[in-house]
Amino acid sequence: MNRLLWSCAALFTLFVTVEALSCNTCAVDILGSCLINGVVNCTNTQDRCYTAVARFSADLLDIHERGCIEQSKCINSTGSILNVNYKITKTCCSGSNLCNAAVVPQRSLTAVLAAALVVVLSQWGL
Fold this sequence. Notes:
Layout: H1 2-16, E1 22-30, E2 33-34, E3 37-41, E4 48-56, E5 63-69, E6 77-81, E7 84-93, H2 109-123
Antiparallel strand pairs: 1-2, 1-3, 1-5, 4-5, 4-7, 6-7
C-alpha cells in the first residue's frame, strides 16, 4: 500500500511539473547589434516568445527587442512621440524553446552608441 501511494505521488508530480518556456532576449538591438542579450525562462503567464520591431516614420533607426510575452499582449501598435510616428510589429511563437530567432552577436556598446549618434546627427543635419 505504501509503495502504491509513493507511485501515485510520483505520477502526480510528473503531471504537475511543467517546464517554463525559454526565449531569446535582446533588451535593445540597434543597427543589428544587441546591447544586452541572453536566454530567459518565462513566467507562468508568459506563454509566448516574441520578436518586436519599432519602425519610425522619420527614417530613424529601427529598434528590435526579443523576450517573453503573454498571448494577450502579442499585438501590433502605433503611436507618436514628439510628432514622430512609429509602428511596433510583434511576431510571437510558442511550442518550442528559443523559437524567437537566434540572438544577434553582442558588439561593443561604445561602437554601437557611436554609430547610433552618427545616424541621429545625420538625420538632424548636424
